[in-house]
Amino acid sequence: MQFSFTQHPLFKTITKHLLWVVAITIVLASCAPAQKLGYGKNGHEYFDHKLFENQFTGVLVIDAQTKDTLINHNAHKYFTPASNTKIATLATAISVLGKQTPALIYTVQNDSLYFKGTGDPSQLHPYYQDSTVTQFLSKQKNLVYCPENFQDNAYGPGWAWEDYDTYYSPERSPLPLYGNVAIIFLKDSLYIIPEYFKDSLYNGGERNRKPFQNRFNRNQMPGDSLEIPFITSTKNTQKLLTSLLDKNIEIGTFPKGDSQTLYSVPTDSLLKRLMHQSDNFIAEQLMQLSAGTLTDTLNFNIARKHALDVLFPEMPQEPRWVDGSGLSRYNLFTPASLVYLLDRLYAEIPQERLFHLFPTGGKVGTLKNYYAGNPRPYLHAKSGSLGNNYNLSGYLVTDSGRVLIFSFMNNHYRQPTQKLKTRMTIFFEAIRDNL
Questions:
Q1: pLDDT for 29 beyond 60
Q2: Closest CA to 405 of 418, 419, 417, 394
Q3: Nearest to 95 by CA among 271, 273, 319, 285
Q4: Which of 153, 335, 363, 387 is deepest in the core (most CB within 10 A)?
Q5: What is the pLDDT of residues 47-83, one digit of tens each?
Q6: Any idea which UniProt keywords this protein has (predicted)?
Q7: Strand 112-117 to strand 142-145: parallel, antiparallel, or no bridges (unpaired)?
């Protein structure tokens, strides 16, 4: 029996891939400049491909300089954004916060230092390990902690209850310490940070932590270390500070009158981790920081309202925006709204700084293993993933030097995400090579 390579499954796979590339390339090469992407400005025929038939897809691509729309498919319809929500958080924080992060608000009265948190997430954080606050407090004699400025919930609306003991879901709080997580690790013996929880380990069970207690399961230890969110409260913050400073901490009300601000890490260091590592905790605390900068109260809704009413009143479709991280499936953004935010950022921030804050395809952050350029990076974007949802929004630099702003959103699919990423890569590379 004579073997025919054309009948081999590999040949069919390669042919299918090449036809996809050729089809996009022909469309890009044959249309007028304003219509090069996807059969005119709508591009519906392109998305008739069977890959998209059982999911919901929306794409918007514009030219950063001319603002011409290059492709528009469902761009004004709402999608679950997942961590693309962090683009709105980034835009808010950049507009509201200064170069340094406010770490503590304090005043001195009657030989006592009254202090309240700002929401700064860097204090003793596993990554930053900043000790600005604790070093400052250690030099004071009488300390009074005032938590009344925090007027929010520890969890965002719609957060999954089952994530309470997972590293990506720490609680929100006014004065975070250690990133609001306990770290358990093996060295010569078993250790836990903060050491305050050393007597809070137990054996057995399927969860990393007891649901309503700061008791951590030592049996869930992996090979190196495990981060487990702990329950935050005024009482727990008081106990942690007392343990750290070896000082008595009283609870009180912040006095009226003048106050001073203590600053910690550069704000860009928070923004970079927000985007590169898609850090949910940093995202939530940045919104608390923004609210506290605008008012005397830490509350997500204050920062969101300021962003929508004052900073971005011309957003094409008002989003349903319920948290800073995108953990909640209640969030709803359109591709057009995300492109609007990205366009505002591009207009107001130097390109070098802006692209440095975003993950870069094939290089850094959550895109390190995807969308690599050859020979140079071409994609600077934020991904957003939840079960059955994958979105990517950001900036694409073409071989001709044009900067394009895009949002490519995929919701409610059942296929492997990797297959979707492969198709998206082909799409982005065709744009890069032909515009």
A1: no
A2: 394
A3: 271
A4: 335
A5: 666 777 778 999 999 999 999 999 999 999 999 999 9
A6: Hydrolase
A7: parallel
Residues in the chain: 435
Instruction: Indicate whether 15 pLDDT > 60.
Output: no
Q: Which amino acid is at 413?
A: Y
Whether residues 62 and 140 share a domain: the answer is no
Which residue range(s) make up the domain with 246?
Answer: 101-265
Are the beta carbons of 54 and 47 closer than 8 angstroms? no
Where would I find the beta strands (DSSP E) of 138-282? 142-145, 181-186, 190-193, 201-202, 216-217, 225-229, 249-251, 260-266
Task: Compute the 3-state secondary structure of the chain and give helix, strand, coil in percent, each to the nearest 5.
Answer: 35, 25, 40
- The torsion angles phi and psi of 117, rounded to 5 degrees, stand at -80, 160
What confidence tens digit (pLDDT) does each residue in 313-332 have?
999 999 999 999 999 999 99
CA 357 vs CA 111, 269, 418: distances in Å? 43, 9, 25
Give the C-alpha distances (Å, rounded to integers) separating 353 from 7, 350, 356. Answer: 51, 6, 5
CA atoms 137, 298, 273, 377: torsion sign: negative
* pLDDT of 410 above 50: yes
Domain assignment present for residue 282? The answer is: no
**Residue (of 112, 121, 132) closest to 264 by Cα position:** 132
**Helix ranges (DSSP H) in 173-248:** 234-245
Are 76 and 118 within one domain?
no
| Type of residue at 29 | A
- Residue 210: CB atoms within 10 A of its CB come to 16
Q: Residues 260, 402: one domain?
A: no
